[in-house]
Amino acid sequence: MALLTPDDLEDILKKLEHNDNIIKDATGMDIKQICETVYGTKLGCEKIGIIPITAGNGIIGNFSSSLLAIADYFGLDGFITEHTDVTGYYQATSGDADILMMADDHMFIAHNLRNGKIATNHICTGVIYAEIASRYRHADTKDVLVIGLGRVGYGGAEHLVKKGFNVFAYDPNAEFLEKAEKELGIIPLDLDHPQKFSMVFEATPNSNTISEGMVAERCLVSTPGIPCGLPDDIGKRDNVDLVMEPLVIGVAAMLHAVL
Ligand code: NAI
Ligand code: PYL
Ligand code: MG
User: Fold this and answer.
1) CB of 148 closer than 6 A to ligand 1?
2) Which of 30, 71, 91, 153 has the most C-beta neighbours closer than 10 Å?
3) What is the pLDDT of residue 194?
4) Does the Cβ of 250 fall within 6 Å of ligand 1?
5) Phi/psi at 258 (nearest 5 deg)?
6) What domains can be seen in the chain, in order of their start residue?
7) In this structure, what DSSP letter does residue 214 have?
8) Using CA of residue 218, residue 224, residue 229, residue 235, what is the dihedral sign?
9) Closest Cα to residue 198, out of 35, 27, 28?
C-alpha cells in the first residue's frame, strides 16, 4: 500500500478548496452535497475521536492533525487521543467520541460507535472519486474509463457499474482485470483501438498512466492516485478538468458512509 508522506498533506484544506471549486464547476454540486447524495446522510454534531497508530511504518507526522482539520472543516468537533494504539482506543471509547478514525499501513477506518457502522478509506475513496467523474456535466455518453483496478479502483468501478455506466477499464495486472470483468462486467480497454473518454477515474500509484488517446476534448479526470496519473501537458489544457487531492475527499465520504 502506498503510504502518504507529510509533504502530501501540506496545505490540504487549500487543496480541498481548489478541488471543491472544480467539482462545483464540473458537476454543479460541492463535495458535501455529493457525499450526502451518495450516502443519503447528513453530518450533524457527531464527535470524532482520532487515534494515532504506531503499527508498521508508524505515525505519519501530520496525519492525525489533518483528520482533525478535516473534521473541523465539515463543522464537527474532534480530538486526537493523548495516547496511541490500544490506550488511545480506550481513551476515545471512554471519552465522548461518536465516530473513531484510525489507520495502520493497510487499513484506514471510520467506526461509528452509536450504530456500529464501519467504513474503509479505500472503498469510500473509490466510490466518491468515481461518483465525481460520473457527474461531469459536459459528458454526452455513459462511457467512463477506469484506470487501475486495485483496492480503490475496484471499489469505484463497482460503484459505476451499479449506477448503470458503461465502464471501460485497464490494469496491467491481468488477474485484477479478469476478476473485474468476471465479477463486475467491466469492458477491458482495447489498447490497440484507442477510444477517447470525457469521464476518467484513475486509481494508481503511478504517474503518466493516462495517455493522449484516452482523453476527449472536454474531459474530467478524477483521481486520488498519488502521484497524479495525468501528464501535465494534458492536464493544463483548457477543457480538461482535474480533481485530485491526497485525503480530504475520501475522508468526507467515510464520515457520511457511517452515519
Ligand atoms: P493498489 O496497489 O491496491 O492498486 C493500484 C492498481 O493500479 C494496481 O492494480 C496496479 O496494477 C494498477 N496500476 C499500476 N500502474 C497502472 C497503469 N499504468 N495503468 C493501469 N493500472 C495501473 O492501490 P490502492 O490502494 O487502490 O490505491 C491507489 C492509489 O490511490 C495509491 O496511490 C494510493 O496512495 C492512493 N490513495 C489516495 C487516497 C486519497 O484520498 N487521495 C486514498 C486512498 C488511496
Ligand atoms: C489513507 C492513506 C491514503 C493513501 N495511503 C493511505 C496511507 O498512507 N495509509 C497509512 C496511514 C498511516 C497512519 C499512521 C498514523 O499516523 O496513525 N498509522
Ligand atoms: Mg481523498
Assistant:
1) yes
2) 153
3) 87
4) yes
5) -100, 5
6) 6-121+250-257 (3.40.50.12150), 123-244 (3.40.50.720)
7) G
8) positive
9) 27
Per-residue pLDDT tens, the chain, 259 aa: give them: 689 999 999 999 999 999 999 999 999 999 999 999 999 999 999 999 999 999 999 999 999 999 999 999 999 999 999 999 999 999 999 989 999 999 999 999 999 999 999 999 999 999 999 999 999 999 999 999 999 999 999 999 999 999 999 999 999 999 999 999 999 999 999 999 989 999 999 999 999 999 999 999 999 999 999 999 999 999 998 899 999 999 999 999 999 999 9
Which atom of ligand 2 approaches the CA of 55 most closely? 18
**DSSP E strands: which ranges in the chain?**
47-51, 77-80, 99-103, 108-112, 118-120, 143-147, 166-170, 187-188, 197-202, 215-222, 240-243
d(CA 150, ligand 1 centre) in Å: 6
Q: 37: how many CB neighbours lie within 10 A of its CB?
A: 13
Query: What pairs with residue 12 in β-bridges?
Result: none
- The three cell numbers of residue 159 are 460503484
Query: How far is ligand 1, taken at its centre, from the CA of residue 20, in Å?
Result: 22
Q: How far apart, in whole angstroms, are the C-alpha atoms of residue 3 and residue 15?
A: 19
CA nearest to 208, candidates 186, 189, 223: 223
